[in-house]
Amino acid sequence: MKNKKILLANCLLLLALLLFILVPFWAIKLFGLVRPISENVSLLLSGSASVIVFGGVALLYCIITKRKFKNVMVIKKISIKQVYLTIFVSLGTYIFAMGINAMTIKLFPFAIKDGTQISNLLSGSTMLLGLLVVVLVPAFFEEIFFRGIFLDAYDGVNKKIKYFIITSIFAAFHGNVMQIMYVMFLGFILLMVREYTGSIVGSMTLHAANNAISFILSKVLMNYMNNVIESSALKSAQEANIPFRAVLIQATMAFLIGGAIIYINLRKLKEYKDTDNRAKRVEREENNDTLKYVVRDGNYMATYGEIKDGKASNLTKYIPLAIYFVSMAVLVVNKY
């Protein structure tokens, strides 16, 4: 069963990639849109594609596996304490990202083009539409896809391998050099928060808070400083030829400050989870001391069955994943 779920998730990943390419194209043809498309329309197309593709594929996964949506995605309420700790993590993540972006621009100057395009898109869109498409839509639909489907499908896989695969899938899907390093880092933190809160609501909260901080600060700076601050900052890394040592010092400061904030609040989230789990475990043991032996036997039977599936199925389930990464590499290379 485990191999089948992984194969299904990886195949649906290819389907999502194909649809994400085709849906905006179909929308442009259907509504007769003429290029160049305005920033608001571009954001609207992107948001609609996310809702249709990520939401549709997530529902399809639940239908095929014959399980309830909330159970697959692990949608549970989290406490107020977990919410504000998660928001502090998002603040640290944003500061840490400043260091990653500085190093990315210095090492890959052609990534400046990506940053400029993103800046122009945000500056030319309305605040309400930006909050909807940049903050709320990704926080829900990207989470149910990347931290919902794939955490469920890869359940039982070695944690380090599982986290690496999911973060790599998440980063590659963004399809540009400017974001890929930062998104790899963000994807890992999202998985940690999802684990420590025990609910996808935790990673949704972090995703929304992180995007909101980035969007609102960028929007405010661009609106009140003649829309030149971010583009100037990006170009200066190349045009002013800032020494690598200076960039490294700036990045190191961001890493230290952001990393400290992330570490402290992730540790508090984990401590909260461990305390809560100990209380629940004691209660379960008092209520039914024999249940753990039944569960243990059931897990053994499932594991034994997986071993008998053979090496062929273990290899086959990763073929769609390999196709996905090759396809994304080709798309990125063609873009630059």
Automatic annotation (TrEMBL):
The chain crosses the membrane at residues 43-63, 83-108, 128-151, 163-193, 199-221, 242-264, 318-334. One of its GO terms (biological process) is CAAX-box protein maturation. Keywords: Hydrolase, Membrane, Metalloprotease, Protease, Transmembrane, Transmembrane helix. Residues 127-213 form the CAAX prenyl protease 2/Lysostaphin resistance protein A-like domain. One of its GO terms (molecular function) is metallopeptidase activity. It comes from the Bacteria. This is CPBP family intramembrane metalloprotease. InterPro entries: Rce1/LyrA-like_dom (IPR003675).
